[in-house]
Design brief:
- The strands form 3 sheets. Strands 6, 7, 8, 9, 10 and 11 form a 6-stranded antiparallel sheet that branches. Strands 4-3-2-1-5 form a 5-stranded antiparallel sheet, with no helix packed on it.
- The chain is elongated.
- The protein is α+β, with helices and mostly antiparallel strands.
- Helices cover 55% and strands 15% of the residues.
- It is built from 13 helices and 13 strands.
- β7 and β8 (92-95) form a beta hairpin.
- The two termini are 46 Å apart.
């Protein structure tokens, strides 16, 4: 979580007179076991071509933390560390300390303008583009919305910053590519705590950018939770009904025992096998048939014949079905036979006995199966790579356009996001904090989902009474 803390920027002067500015990351002993090296995050990729630099501790002549050093978070080339010389726009040029105040005020304006532009694009333009296929009259509304977006974009552009690195190199930076600016060495502890809170909130509420190496993970959080909820809605009734049939309805013979053995063996099948099955049966089989029947006018572009949220949820429901079946059967086996016999003796039918006596007493065991299913499904990645997960899907599959929940869309997942950032990024060292933060978030999401089911299970157990173990 320290990744979101505004770390101080150190001005390092080497013995040969060269200077660099960076955030100290870690220190290691040299391979020769003589002396130590320190790793600095120096940023300024557009000036140096790299953002990391190892410096031998013995070569450092002096260290300081000037209060005027500025850190800029940019949409291109990563962060910048150095000094702010001036802010230039059509109204003139502002220099010195006044430039910093003018920059902060202008960034607040740009944040509001970007938010309005993005709102128009997501809530107005994108739905109008979809409407064009069936309503040509939406073209006029689309033209007006695009004109408003162009006007906002014109207000965003035009400002420039004059920057200088600590070694004297100057750089002109277009302000439209700057998201935030701060002076970490001049910030007080309350200011740093507030900045840390804003950084965590942006991580939780914004979408990714810069090939997932920056920005937030909100689409991945939403996709993970929605997929798990849909999976639970599908797997719970089927798992419970299958467990009831095997334990209460089916004849207890050799065939039933073979089915039980097969169900338990399915729990040990590698998850990638389920992904291949989902790709062949759900995506190409059922999804391809749905496209031919209902979306023939959109072919060859598939609607349901490609990976999406629905097929991913069904694949994980199939993967976790054995867990729910086994837990339900164990719960039913723990219900004493005299409970069934007493209900039947009082005149209840077999269906009433199951619905009003046996199933309420088995509900905690059923929820135990659902908890185990959620814990496994939320962390699965391999099958999702085949049936619908995407590297980047900034739009969540729920919006204000009918049918509101778009099951055919691809989605992001926290587990796959960790895999992609850790192994497909261009800078592993820079990606590590985001990988750790996303991994912690995935654990917390699974914990919240499990605790919700656990509290419900305890409520049902207290209401219907705990069953003694045999």
């Amino acid at each position: 979580m320290g990744h979101f803390w505004p770390s101080p920027v150190t001005l390092v002067t080497l013995e040969d007179g060269r200077q660099l500015a960076g955030q100290a990351v870690r220190e290691e002993r040299l391979p020769s076991a003589v002396g130590r090296e320190r790793l600095y995050l120096t940023a300024n990729r557009d000036l140096d071509g790299a953002i990391w630099r190892w410096v031998a501790v013995e070569e450092i002549a002096a260290e300081s933390r000037p209060r005027d050093l500025v850190v800029l978070e940019r949409t291109r080339w990563g962060t910048f560390q150095g000094r702010l010389l001036a802010l230039e726009n059509a109204a003139g040029r502002v220099e010195g300390e006044a430039a910093w105040a003018a920059l902060q005020a202008r960034l607040k304006e740009l944040t509001a303008l970007r938010a309005e532009r993005d709102r128009l694009r997501d809530e107005v333009v994108v739905p109008l583009i979809r409407r064009l296929e069936r309503d040509p009259g939406a073209e006029t509304e689309l033209a007006r919305a695009n004109a408003r977006i162009r006007a906002l974009q014109a207000r965003i552009t035009g400002d420039r910053l004059l920057l200088e690195s600590v070694d004297g190199r100057r750089l002109q930076q277009r302000l439209e590519h700057v998201l935030r600016a701060w002076q970490p060495n001049a910030m007080s502890l309350p200011a740093k705590m507030a900045a840390w809170g804003r950084g965590v909130w942006r991580f939780l509420s914004e979408g990714p950018r810069a090939a997932n190496s920056a920005g937030g993970v909100w689409p991945a959080i939403f996709g993970t939770v929605l997929m798990v909820l849909l999976m639970s809605v599908v797997v719970t009734p089927f798992g419970v009904l299958a467990g009831i049939y095997l334990n209460e309805v089916a004849h207890q013979g050799r065939l039933t025992r073979l089915v039980r053995v097969a169900v338990r063996n399915l729990a040990g099948v590698p998850s990638i096998v389920y992904g291949v099955f989902g790709l062949g049966v759900f995506v190409y089989g059922i999804g391809g048939s749905l496209d031919e029947w209902f979306f023939a006018d959109q072919l060859p572009s598939p609607t349901f014949g490609t990976g999406g949220l629905l097929w991913a949820s069904l694949t994980l429901a199939l993967l976790t079905l054995p867990v729910v079946i086994v837990a339900t059967e164990e719960g039913l086996a723990r219900v004493p036979n005299h409970q069934r016999e007493g209900a039947l003796a009082l005149g209840a039918t077999r269906v009433e006995m199951l619905a009003r006596v046996v199933l309420p007493m088995t509900a905690p065991a059923m929820l135990t199966g659902v908890i185990l299913a959620v814990a496994r499904a939320a962390g699965e990645v391999a099958p999702l790579m085949l049936v619908g997960v995407a590297k980047l899907a900034p739009q969540v599959p729920v919006d204000g356009e009918f049918p509101f929940l778009h099951l055919e869309r691809k989605f992001m997942h926290l587990g796959y996001h960790i895999y992609d950032v850790a192994f497909h990024g261009g800078d592993v060292q820079a990606a590590l904090p985001l990988v750790y933060a996303t991994a912690l978030l995935l654990v917390l999401v699974i914990l919240v989902l499990n605790l919700t089911a656990i509290f419900l299970r305890h409520h049902l157990r207290a209401r219907h009474g705990a069953l003694p173990r045999r």
